[in-house]
Write a structure and sequence with these properties.
- The complex is a heterodimer of chains A (372) and B (550).
- Chain A has helices at residues 9-24, 34-68, 79-92, 105-117, 131-137, 207-219, 222-234, 243-252, 263-272, 300-311, 313-321, 337-341, 353-357, 359-366, 368-371, and strands spanning 5-6, 70-75, 97-102, 125-128, 141-142, 154-155, 161-172, 197-200, 239-240, 257-262, 276-278, 285-294, 348-349.
- With 372 residues, chain A is of the alpha/beta class.
- In chain A, helix 3 links the parallel strand 2 and strand 3.
- The two termini of chain A are 26 Å apart.
- Chain B has 550 residues and is mainly alpha-helical.
- Chain B has helices at 2-26, 39-45, 50-81, 87-92, 102-113, 119-128, 140-164, 168-176, 181-192, 194-210, 213-219, 228-236, 241-265, 290-318, 324-329, 337-343, 348-379, 387-391, 400-411, 420-443, 448-456, 461-472, 474-489, 495-498, 506-510, 512-515, 519-543.
- In chain B, helix 14 packs across helix 27 (519-543).
- Chain B is globular, with a radius of gyration of 24 Å.
- The two termini of chain B are 31 Å apart.
- Classes of the chains: A alpha/beta (372), B mainly alpha (550).
- At the A-B interface, strand 2, helix 3, strand 3, helix 4 and helix 5 of A face helix 12 and helix 19 of B.
């Protein structure tokens, strides 16, 4: 059962209506429609309410966090990113010393849960995508519901979603014309793309399997889902176990289409002038990156403060400054879903708790029997 | 005393192994205690796919070990025993490829050999009009080629001391009996190098069995699945260290079988003793015009072992992005942004310093302990010491992440946890097999008569060890020190769980670029790292007259 509350759903419908309204009133473009006013007011009020709630909780937590004095973060994020983010946090909250340890998701889960089983109060927050739900399933995460929940695309009442992993359908612009691109994720399974698609291994709990989980939930149609997986299999293309390596091979021209790529990677490459782009018409798959607070955290108040600060405007700016996607639906950034895919985009969220907490079991049930 | 030293080293190695083995009977998914059971083993031995995967693993590891150890042995023989021209250069050329970590070679060779976008296939198309790709990085041959090249240094460093300490009277007897040089080489020289060759082969084979990056990067696209991927899936997909260990036990069984053959093949160790009580000088063989071919072979190895992949990485680190056209436009499109990114890395300086200090210390301690254990097995009369043969090699059977979980569990709750000491012990356990196998391969070549002469004159073990064994082992000690230092300074897999928040260890952060697939930054980081090491090796060699087996 999905525990996520998709805060984006209502605003997205709103946005659709707004766009239609705007279209209708094109001649009087400067005069805002009633819908626009309502949306902006609503959005602005949600933003204001979130800011107020953050200031209040920040004022409550900071003195206690300062007394604790430390914050220990385990994360999958790049060291450069962690440094920028923790430096900004320490600048905002003097008296708290933030340190971090960086590893891959399996390493984070292994270390965090080995320490948990050993009774160690050794870390405060785990900041990652795949790891927090797995750690939570073992009972090592303290439930914490952010006070800024109303401005989040994906809200989980047990762990604050501080950023999003956004998957995009990327392609090599030297190899593919936009007109020839797949029109949807489902269209990638079209036999005409045989031989030119770089496919992430659907059995490794990587981006493609997250996408399958998201699509299965969204479609709620077993036949459609099964045909899609069979179609991908019928492409008979090599599968890859490293998303980034696969993306580099698309850039190099080994393949033309990347199924899928991570949006922040795509933007970074576009920024460098690499011949790569993404199909904006294909809705992104969004996976939560969460701040899970340890049940035995030695500095629980600093951990909560850090999680709240990451969602605040200031924290989101820090996240955005290192090129990572933000989690708020009211934050203006080039990587935000609205900016990257358009106003009416309905992202495909990955929210199936069974997949998030035990990917192996989910894949054995939902992918392996079809994929083989 | 050597027995006590060996027992301490053995205990340090066996304890984390026992911990993870115990957990394979008591642990399911991490975070859940399941009580004593054999569920993990039932799953492992009921796995229908493992035989096919083991077949792939044996082909890949065996092929790579054979290629790497064979080329290494040939290079060692050329350097030590022939009159190949350009002695100084020939001595140095095979050393530099050691500095390049396997993952750098993987990436460079993928860029060279990828079917559609690879540089070599592109050149074939551009210059010779050959449309069909000739090379394929994503194949078993491609995997064996790349990992085999990574196995050469070990073969070279293990065999070189043997060829350098060769009693020429054995070959001279063959010549007097009318044997030709090639015959003598095949029937006398190489057979006497069998223990060292097998030692290096066993190590390379076990490294191949548990190697993961080459199969992931090059094997998965070709649908070649190797056994160790099951171990990693158990950790990465199921978060079940118990199951990962149960799978690793299959690797332990394979290691035991491999070691059994090694022990059988070298059981008459006296036959291989080439260092005896007689004085001699190693004879360099005049191979006539063949010396130009041997020079060419060394040079070719230097090209494929480091020069070509290194050049590819330098270019990739300096072009905006990699594709064939952009690659061929270099240097007109050169940029230095990736170097700027790497040098600004928050852990670059502190991490490098920590890893330099630790790697030097660990190399010294590990090599000394390896020699003590080999000495205990082959030179003392204590019974049951052959068990050390197994214990000393055991860590190689466990993938690093599995082994480091054992270490984390041991250190948890002690003052050692999250300290550099824990990291040091972890690296000691991980690299002990290299030191030990190197020492045992070399000690077998020293005839017991040297020790016996000392024993007869009332010498104690320390006199024999420090005055006889250690000085004779000096060439191989240099090689092992060098190898372990190089390996330790770039270790990520063992170190990652043992580093603590706020305490940086260079390779973990620098090699993160490789791990996350940022190839351009990784190439820049790799180039910086290689330049530092090449400079360090060259300074050590020329300024301090340090010898690395040479």
């Amino acid at each position: 059962m999905a525990t996520f509350l998709i805060a984006a759903a209502a605003p997205a419908a709103e946005k659709a209506a707004t766009k239609d309204a705007a279209k209708d009133q094109k001649p009087a473009a400067k005069a805002p429609s009633k819908e626009q006013v309502r949306k902006e007011t609503s959005s602005a009020s949600a933003t204001a309410a979130a800011a107020k709630a953050f200031e209040k909780v920040s004022a409550e937590l900071y003195p206690k966090a300062k007394q604790e004095g430390n914050l220990i973060v385990y994360s999958v994020w790049d060291v450069e990113h962690l440094k920028v983010i923790t430096d900004a946090f320490m600048k905002r909250y003097p008296g708290i010393k933030a340190t971090y340890w960086q590893g891959r998701n399996p390493e984070i889960v292994t270390r965090a849960l080995t320490e948990f089983q050993g009774g160690q109060a050794s870390w405060d927050v785990v900041l990652s995508d795949n790891a927090p739900p797995v750690i939570r399933a073992a009972g090592a995460i303290m439930n914490y519901d952010t006070v800024q929940r109303d401005v989040l695309y994906l809200h989980d009442p047990t762990m604050p979603t501080v950023s999003l992993q956004v998957q995009a359908l990327a392609y090599n612009t030297k190899k593919m014309k936009p007109a020839d691109l797949p029109k949807s994720w489902e269209d990638v399974a079209n036999p005409k793309y045989k031989g030119i698609v770089a496919l992430d291994d659907p059995l490794r709990a990587g981006p493609l399997s997250s996408m399958l989980s998201g699509l299965k939930t969204q479609w709620n149609d077993d036949n459609r889902y099964s045909n899609f997986v069979k179609g991908l299999k019928a492409l008979n293309v090599p599968v890859h176990q490293s998303t980034s390596a696969m993306f580099r091979l698309v850039i190099s021209g080994e393949y033309s289409i990347c199924m899928p790529a991570l949006l922040h990677d795509v933007f970074e490459e576009i920024h460098k002038g690499t011949p790569v782009n993404y199909n904006k018409a294909v809705p992104p798959v969004v996976f939560p990156r969460q701040a899970g607070i340890y049940v035995k955290a030695p500095d629980p108040n600093a951990a909560k403060l850090f999680a709240e600060w990451l969602i605040s405007e200031e924290g989101q700016k820090a996240i955005d400054s290192v090129g990572r996607e933000t989690s708020r639906n009211d934050f203006k950034s080039h990587t935000s879903i609205e900016a990257a895919f358009g106003k009416n985009t309905k992202p495909i969220p990955v929210t199936d708790r069974n997949f998030l907490e035990d990917p192996k079991k989910w894949l054995d049930t939902n992918v392996k029997p079809i994929w083989g | 005393m050597p027995l006590v030293g060996s027992a301490i080293a053995g205990a340090a190695i066996i304890t984390p192994v026992l911990v993870v083995l115990w957990r394979s009977f008591t642990t399911g998914r991490l975070g859940f205690n399941v009580g004593l059971n054999i569920a993990n083993y039932v799953r492992v031995f009921g796995d229908k796919d493992i035989m096919a995967m083991l077949g792939n693993s044996v082909a890949y590891a065996g092929g790579s070990a054979l290629l790497g150890t064979g080329v290494g042995a040939l290079l060692a023989w050329i350097v030590a025993r022939t009159n190949t021209p350009g002695k100084t250069l020939v001595e140095l050329l095979p050393l530099y490829p050691i500095l390049m970590p396997p993952i750098m070679k993987n990436i460079a060779w993928i860029l060279l050999l990828a079917p559609r976008s690879g540089i070599l296939n592109g050149m074939m198309q551009q210059f010779f009009g050959i449309e069909t790709p000739i090379f394929n990085a994503f194949s078993m041959t491609g995997m064996i080629w790349v990992f085999g090249l990574a196995c050469v240094p070990l073969g070279y460093l293990f065999l070189l001391p043997v060829f350098l300490s060769f009693d020429p009277s054995l070959e001279e007897s063959a010549y007097i009996a009318g044997s030709k040089p090639v015959n003598t080489m095949l029937k006398i020289t190489f057979p006497l190098a069998v223990p060292a060759f097998l030692s290096a082969f066993v190590l390379n084979f076990l490294r191949g069995l548990r190697s993961f990056e080459t199969p992931v990067l090059q094997g998965t696209p070709a649908n070649i699945k190797v056994f160790v991927s099951r171990v990693y899936d158990s950790m990465a997909l199921e978060f079940n260290t118990g199951l990962a260990t149960a799978y690793s036990v299959v690797l332990v069984a394979l290691s035991v079988i491999t070691l059994y053959f090694y022990v059988r093949a070298t059981r008459f160790s006296d036959r291989y003793a080439t260092i005896t009580g007689k004085g001699y000088r190693v004879k360099v063989i005049d191979i006539g015009p063949w010396k130009y071919l041997t020079f060419f072979l060394v040079f070719i190895y230097f090209l494929v072992g480091i020069a070509i992949p290194f050049i590819v990485l330098i270019v990739v680190s300096m072009i905006p992005y990699f594709d064939y056209d952009t690659f061929m436009k270099f240097p007109t499109n050169a940029v230095l942004t990736n170097y700027y990114t790497v040098m600004r890395h928050p852990s670059f300086v502190t991490g490098l310093y920590n890893s330099l200090v630790l790697s030097v210390s660990i190399a010294l301690v590990t090599v000394l302990a390896g020699i003590v254990m080999a000495f205990t097995i082959y030179r003392t009369r204590a019974s049951g010491t052959r068990i050390f043969e197994f214990i000393g090699t055991l860590p190689l059977a466990f993938p690093p992440l599995v082994l480091s979980v054992g270490l984390v569990i041991i250190f948890l709750g002690t003052p050692l946890y999250n300290s550099l000491w824990a990291l040091g012990i972890g690296l000691f356990v991980a690299y002990f097999p290299y030191a030990f196998r190197n020492a045992s391969g070399s000690i077998v070549n020293i005839h017991k008569e040297l020790d016996e002469a000392a024993w007869v004159h009332g010498a104690r073990w320390r006199h024999v060890f420090f005055k006889i064994t250690l000085p004779i082992l000096k060439p191989s000690v240099g090689g092992a020190l060098f190898y372990i230092f190089i390996e330790a300074i770039r270790n990520v897999d063992v170190a990652v769980l043992l580093t603590s928040p706020g305490r940086e260890y260079g390779p973990v952060t620098l090699f993160e670029y490789f791990r996350v697939g940022q190839w351009a930054e990784a190439a820049a980081g790799g180039v910086v790292y290689l330049v530092i090491l090449i400079a360090a090796v060259s300074i050590a060699k020329f300024a301090f007259k340090m010898k690395f087996s040479l």
